[in-house]
């Protein structure tokens, strides 16, 4: 897991699994928050249904996974294809993609660029292009990757200028939520009502999804 001051300190999968259910979600915060004040950080609407946040998988899925990630996070990149495979194989998972650029200014540029690409319906292409590299991103490399992915770079610049405040507001919301959940780095997840601050294998994700479905029925 990559984080502010714990780069390289990766929790074991067993340790990550033991944390599932710990924190605000397990306490029912996200289900009871529907009746909370509008300015609450961790309401269901803001965490799961922010209209500005990109969504992958099945938009009508019966379980939601929320992922906080950074384009320069090697663990996010390693996990990306496995998580997407789990989502695809399941067929009923809604994946909410929260950009959380905590690894420096270039990470912020990457996140802002991906979110600006959303205005030309190219967020997922931008996301996949930047997650698909093995080396640390630079600003020239970001531009190269996005152009190769079919992003109109002139339009991107215009949207960064004209929609920049909206993009920054979304990144601020993402950061406030991650901090409120107590996440220490990327990647971090909410799976149904469970808090998963760490990296899981495909099998472990499948198990957490199954557990989340059972919890939803109870």
Question: Would you kindly provide a written description of the structure presented here, covering whatever features stand out?
Answer:
This protein is an alpha+beta fold. The protein has 10 helices and 7 strands. The strands form 2 sheets. A 5-stranded mixed β-sheet has the order 2-4-3-6-7. It has a two-stranded antiparallel sheet with strand order 1-5. β3 (63-69), α4 and β4 (93-99) form a beta-alpha-beta unit. α5 crosses α8 and α5 (105-117) crosses α9. The chain is globular. It starts with a strand and ends with a helix. The model is unreliable at 3-39 (pLDDT under 50).
Q: How do you describe this structure in short?
A:
This protein is an alpha+beta fold and 218 residues long.
How far do the termini sit from each other?
A: 32 Å
User: Given the helix and strand composition, which structural class is it?
Assistant: alpha+beta
Strand percentage lies at: 5-15%
Main sheet makeup: 5 strands, mixed
Helicity, in percent?
40-55%
Average the pLDDT over all residues and give the rounded result: 84
Tally the helices: what do you get? 10
Radius of gyration in whole Å, from Cα?
17 Å
Q: Name the strands of the widest sheet in spatial order.
A: 2-4-3-6-7
Overall form: globular
Ranges where pLDDT stays below 50 over 5 or more residues in a row are: 3-39
Q: What are the secondary-structure elements, in order, as H or E?
A: EHHHEEHEHHHHHEEEH
The beta-strand count equals 7
């Amino acid at each position: 897991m990559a984080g502010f001051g714990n780069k390289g300190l990766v929790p074991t999968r067993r340790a990550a699994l033991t944390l599932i259910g710990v924190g605000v979600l397990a306490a029912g915060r996200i289900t009871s928050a529907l009746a909370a004040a509008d300015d609450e950080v961790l309401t269901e609407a803001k965490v799961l249904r922010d209209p500005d946040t990109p969504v992958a998988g099945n938009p009508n899925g019966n379980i939601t996974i929320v992922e906080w990630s950074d384009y320069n996070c090697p663990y996010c990149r390693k996990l990306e294809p496995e998580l997407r495979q789990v989502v695809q194989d399941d067929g009923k998972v809604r994946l909410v993609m929260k950009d959380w650029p905590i690894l420096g200014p270039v990470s912020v540029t990457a996140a802002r660029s991906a979110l600006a690409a959303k205005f030309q319906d190219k967020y997922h292409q931008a996301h996949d292009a930047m997650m698909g590299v093995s080396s640390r991103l630079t600003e020239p490399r970001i531009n190269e990757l996005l152009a190769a992915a079919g992003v109109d770079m002139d339009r991107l610049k215009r949207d960064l200028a004209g929609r920049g405040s909206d993009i920054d507001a979304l990144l601020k919301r993402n950061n406030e939520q991650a901090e409120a959940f107590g996440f220490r780095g990327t990647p971090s997840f909410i799976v149904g009502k469970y808090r998963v601050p760490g990296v899981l294998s495909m099998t472990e994700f499948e198990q957490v999804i199954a557990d989340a479905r059972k919890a939803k029925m109870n």
